[in-house]
Design goal:
Helices cover 29% and strands 25% of the residues. By secondary structure, it is an alpha+beta fold. The chain contains 14 helices and 23 strands. α8 runs parallel beside α10. The strands form 4 sheets. Strands 5, 6, 7, 8, 9, 10, 11, 12, 13 and 16 form a 10-stranded mixed β-sheet that branches. The chain binds S-adenosylmethionine. The site of S-adenosylmethionine (SAM) has 17 residues, from α6 and α10.
Length: 444
């Protein structure tokens, strides 16, 4: 590690001592409130662990608890556990309502779910992850956070961005990196560190940016971020990209957190309140827009439509869906179809929300319904409070006793936020919480 510290000394000069002071201190812990489901005031009232707001995002808060992954409101998608400085990149991206936004290296989904919250159910989020198992984790987080206007894909950046040339208002490249900013959180990352690894990351980062640039529309924004301090992977990549791409201009991030680098980009060190991030923002001055191909919306067949309407009527008080489609046996409510490109032949894991699956002679509702619709919309709701032991029993996958008159699928909510589904009959609620999400209890 001497080599790493020597490099940090050269990089930081007089500030090296400030950095060294942080090295053996515990890392920061923070959450970002998912404003699609919950307000900061509500979360604060329910959760004593909520501390001060972070400087990196209007919805980010330091927390005094380390392990919140089993907390019922985490299960319900009220918040996302996120390293505070990692919230900076989406703040710099400056998402506006109605934007089409691509998050090219998106798993596990911290920044994608932040983009979705900023979009506030308008526009389109396209979250892509090249590593398949990670793409499924991304999808699970998109579901948990109740995001309805997203496409989740599992494609390599070059194929995706060539297909969708000039399609997006904003593109984020949160690139795989040597992770020097994660050293306090992840001691294993220290073992993997070497100058050679960092240089190979820089080569890969340049290649990803070369793909990403295609997907930005003329006048659109490209943000590049890493969680490393390496100059090769940060300023080096930005300079090489600018040299090869005169149609892109490095612009001011408009933010004052951390400190300035290359005049206009930002660097964040642990002494700025987060583990470490680099963020640079480009504008694409001109370029091509290849027609992405019009999305052709296929309505369900008359027979399927009839069954789906009956299914929705049985489950919900009213029908909020406008763009239902059926792919194989899956029933989906698509994002605004006017914002979608032709997706033929692309590796898409999800577009919109999944309502259910056709089984032999019935439709099996999908968990995604409970996470993305307001609980009040369901005909039947088991309303639980955070202090209720039943919340833990539900998350563990147990059957729950309920009023005997209720029959059929019901949503289970905690503090008014949808958690999952259950099937009621004869005074019991059969647990439909997905097996992969069931965990041991949170202490109430
Ligand atoms: N943005 C994510 C978030 O906020 O949760 C974190 C992204 S992480 C820093 C970088 C991601 O890039 C990883 O999920 C990794 O699997 C993916 N990746 C790895 N190699 C890649 C490549 N060659 N092209 C694109 N993405 C790659």
């Amino acid at each position: 590690m001497k080599e790493f510290f020597d490099r940090m000394h050269t990089l930081l000069g007089d500030d090296f001592g400030r950095y060294l002071d942080t090295v053996d201190k515990p890392p920061y812990h923070a959450v970002r409130v998912n404003t699609l489901k919950c307000s900061a005031d509500k979360l604060r009232a329910l959760c004593p662990f909520m501390g001060e707001r972070t400087p990196f995002c209007k919805d980010g808060y330091y927390v005094t608890e380390e392990k919140l992954g089993k907390h019922p409101l985490h299960h319900a998608g009220a918040f996302y556990i996120q390293e505070p400085s990692a919230m900076s990149a989406v703040t710099v991206l400056g998402v506006k309502k109605g934007d089409r936004v691509l998050d090219l290296c998106a798993a596990p989904g911290g920044k994608s779910t932040q983009i979705a919250a900023d979009l506030g159910s308008t526009g389109l989020l396209w979250a892509n992850e090249v590593v398949r198992p990670r793409a499924h984790i991304l999808l699970s987080n998109i579901e948990r956070m109740g995001i309805a206007n997203a496409v989740v894909s599992n494609m390599d950046p070059e194929t995706l961005c060539t297909r969708l040339e000039g399609f997006f208002d904003k593109v984020l490249v949160d690139a795989p990196c040597s992770g020097e900013g994660m050293f306090r959180k992840d001691r294993e990352a220290i073992e993997e560190w070497s100058v050679e690894h960092s240089l190979s990351c820089a080569v890969r980062q340049k290649a990803i940016l070369e793909s990403a640039k295609k997907a930005v529309r003329p006048g659109g924004v490209l943000v590049y971020s890493t969680c490393t301090f390496s100059v090769d992977e940060n300023e080096g990549v930005v300079e090489a990209f600018l040299k090869d791409n005169p149609s892109f201009e490095l612009v001011d991030t408009g933010e004052s957190f951390g400190e300035a680098t290359l005049c206009k980009a930002r660097r964040i060190y642990p002494y700025h309140g987060g583990e470490g991030h680099f963020v640079a923002k480009f504008i694409k001055k001109d370029g091509d827009v290849a027609p992405a191909g019009v999305f052709r919306y296929e309505k369900p067949s008359r027979r399927d439509e009839f069954d789906i309407i009956a299914f929705v009527d049985e489950l919900l008080r009213s029908n909020p869906f406008e763009h239902i489609t059926v792919i194989d046996d899956r029933i989906l409510e698509l994002p605004d179809t006017e914002l979608l490109p032709d997706m033929t032949g692309m590796n898409i894991l999800r577009a919109g929300i999944k309502l259910g699956d056709f089984r032999r002679n019935r439709i099996e509702p999908h968990h995604n319904l409970a996470t993305s619709l307001r609980p009040e919309l369901f005909n039947r709701q088991l309303k639980l409070e955070l202090s209720d032991e039943l919340v833990n029993r539900y998350i563990r996958g147990e059957e729950i006793s309920i009023d005997s008159w209720i029959r059929g699928y019901a949503v289970v909510s905690v503090e008014g936020i949808g958690l999952g589904l259950g099937k009621a009959s004869d005074g019991r609620l059969k647990n439909k919480y997905p097996k992969g999400l069931r965990t041991l209890s949170w202490r109430i």
